[in-house]
Model the fold of this input.
Amino acid sequence: MSFHLIVSDPTPQVLGQELPALVRDGYTSFKVFATYDDLVLNDAQILDVFEVARRERALVMVHAEGMTRSAT
Done:
């Protein structure tokens, strides 16, 4: 069984320290949301998560269905 980490508050601390440490611990996939008001990230935040994932060699899944407004 595996879990995808949900990134809902991509602060500099999370992006620079916490996500890389979690990847080193074996959590290699993140999930971000472009929908659901309490989980939605804007475009810049999603790109920041993509950058960390690229650097750390992790996978990002985007939950985007049902979008009715721009996530910016």
In short: The radius of gyration is 12 Å. Residues 43-56 form the longest helix (14 residues).
